[in-house]
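[retry 2/3] Uridylate kinase: previous attempt timed out, resubmitting with same input.
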Amino acid sequence: MRVVVSIGGSVLAPDLDPERVAAYAEAIERLAADGCEVGVVVGGGGVAREYIETAREIGANEVELDRLGIGTTRLNARLLIAALGDRASLAPAVDTEEAAAALRRDEVAVMGGVTPGQTTDAVAATFAESVDADLLVYATSADGVYDADPNADPDATQFASLSPAELVEVVLPMSRDAGASAPVDLLAAKLIDRAGIRSIVLDGTDPTAVVDAVLRGDHTGTDVVPVDGEEPDYWTEER
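[retry 2/3] Uridylate kinase: success.
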């Protein structure tokens, strides 16, 4: 099974917690040991947002803000690579072609942001499409996709399942400013819809949740299921 896992920076390294980074490395190693080809895209998280807000206050434009965010995502990616050791590529891939080449070498391909105007959500969707991934998993700080911001609206309702087109409709009103925080952004949703990628959006604060979702399809988040989509064969195979 070929899977791309997008890990939010605040999920991977809250307060730069080495134990959390090590736990994520262990989870990814578990997937690889079980026969999965694994690509990982790492976000910037709270550290990136702090840099972005500081730079915004001193007059940086949106492209400059994006570049600050990209730099932070690549630092976070290096943290994960350090924890993975020989299992991973030596450095964060700078584009999806380089990441795909790492997969072909049987390495865990790790990357951060790529270009201004594109979040790591979208990078992960592009990566998944480019390598014909069987599954795309977004490990976020929210337990799935909601019809409103659950942090601001106590009546927000979680979607158990959405089609890719429905996902686009849900995230369409969301902010697109640099550093905006949402489970999946608009461009990523459109790419998922275009490619018909089976996806899962889940709470990734416990890295074992990613393992359960990838290996068995077990999770409490939101399934994004293409029309006429079927469960990956991997979930029904005896291993």
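[retry 2/3] Uridylate kinase: DSSP finds nine helices and seven strands in the chain.
[retry 2/3] clearing retry counter.
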